[in-house]
Design goal:
Blueprint lengths: L3 E9 L4 E9 L6 H12 L6 E8 L5 E9 L2 H8 L3 H6 L44 H5 L1
């Protein structure tokens, strides 16, 4: 990551957090993991206390504007905002958050195998109809 410029930094005592907005120069959009690591180093805080709000980039520009909240503790972060899907990737699942398996159903009967019907064609004699007289013969 190239340049790091803080645009806005304010302390929010009600929610026990710092709200920071900054720009960063990069060739590609920085991932949440990268941003969390950079903020952790710059502000000497654990990565668990950081919530990334948004990463915005403009078309054709290598500058990205990032909004971040840094909480005093991880519990303050969870109490204020709750768990997020992006943070769940970085944190291991607790036993309470593991998915519950669906109950298994009794085996159902399989449908009987239907075999295709093959018809054999039997030639039947065709009855010959008497030929009708043509109209020319009737007029004579």
């Amino acid at each position: 990551m190239e340049n790091f410029n803080i645009i806005e930094e304010k302390k929010n005592s009600l929610f026990k957090r710092k709200e920071i907005k900054f720009t960063i120069g990069a060739e590609i959009t920085p991932s949440h993991t990268e941003v969390r690591r950079i903020i952790s180093e710059k502000f000497s805080t654990p990565e668990e206390n950081i919530r990334i709000k948004k990463i915005l980039g403009k078309f054709g520009s290598n500058d990205f504007t990032i909004s971040v909240n840094i909480y005093d503790s991880e519990q303050d972060k969870l109490d204020t905002e709750g768990p997020s899907k992006k943070d769940a990737v970085a944190q291991p699942e607790t036993p309470a958050e593991q998915p519950v398996e669906a109950p298994t159903e009794a085996p159902t009967q399989k449908d009987p195998v239907v075999e295709p019907v093959t018809e054999t064609l039997v030639e039947q004699p065709v009855e010959e109809k008497p030929a009708e007289e043509s109209k020319e013969e009737k007029t004579e």
